[in-house]
Every structure is written in C-alpha cells, then in structure tokens.
Amino acid sequence: MRTLVLNAGYEPLSVVTSRRAAVLVMRGKASILAEDGSPIASPSALIPRPAVILLHKYVRVVRRRPTAPSRRGILRRDQRNCGYCGKTAATVDHVIPKARGGDSSWENLVACCGPCNVRKGDKTLEQLGWELLVTPKAPPHHMWLPAELDAPREVWMPFLDHTGNGVVRTATAAA
Description:
Blueprint: E1 2-6, E2 12-17, H1 18-26, E3 30-35, E4 40-41, E5 46-47, E6 50-55, H2 71-77, E7 91-94, E8 109-112, H3 114-120, H4 125-128, H5 171-174
Parallel strand pairs: 1-6
Antiparallel strand pairs: 1-2, 3-6, 4-5, 7-8
C-alpha cells in the first residue's frame, strides 16, 4: 500500500510505503489525515494504516526548472503517446535529428513508438511529410510531483486539486 505525504503546507511532497508512513507517525513527525481499511499489526498494538499523512515540519524542496530532459521525463510529459502517430510510445526521438544539428532539449525530444522511430531515422519531418501531434516544450510545474499522482488513489482526492496535482485545504484536511 502507498501513502501520500503532504508537506506542512498541505502540498503533495511524495508517496511512500504505508510502513514508512506509520514510522513517521509513530516518531511524532507526521499525523494521519486519512486511513486505509486494514490496520498494521505489530506484536503490541494495531496501528491504523495511513493513506494520507501530514508532516509537522515544513520540508523545503528545491526545484530547479527546467532540469535536463531524460527518457523517463519525456515519456511522462507526453503521457507515453507517440508524437507522430499517437500510439503507445516506449522510446524517445529527436525531432531535428542529432546528425542534422538537433540538440537533446525538451523542445527537440518527443516520445515515439518503435515503428515511427525506425521509419524516421535521421530524416526531418519535412522530408517525410509528417507533422507533430504535440508541441514539445519543458514540462509544467506539476510534472515534478510524484509520478503516482498521475493516477491518484480515490482516498487522496480530497487532498489534491481537481487535476490531482496541487494544494487543496479541505475541511477534512484542515482538521
């Protein structure tokens, strides 16, 4: 089971195992805001299984933007959809090939399926008559949130904004 960790300002910080979350709660570093059904059994007690915890002290996170692109980051930004045909992508392609002076930047890399990557090779889009389905650019701020928030659990939703990415202080969360 996974547990959403909220910073002291109620913004999502990370997702950890429920065991790690229980340790943070037992050490007095966090409070449980939402529980899962089955408790964690220890030899001396039953501990509620945390689904969402709130840290007592604010953790300052340094996020420099934009970071260098990575295969994982490009695939996540493009939601694993090929930038040329829209099918499921498993690799990354340079829009302007490196052999023709293209760089490895957010603006020149797209997620790509294997067949499109092979067909494109070191050709330009104009040579092939292709058009991009997406406009490659550096990812937005919420891309630096944990990947688990791309498909959040239902129990986390009251603590996230309507897109599942931001900060929301609900009556439940403020308690």
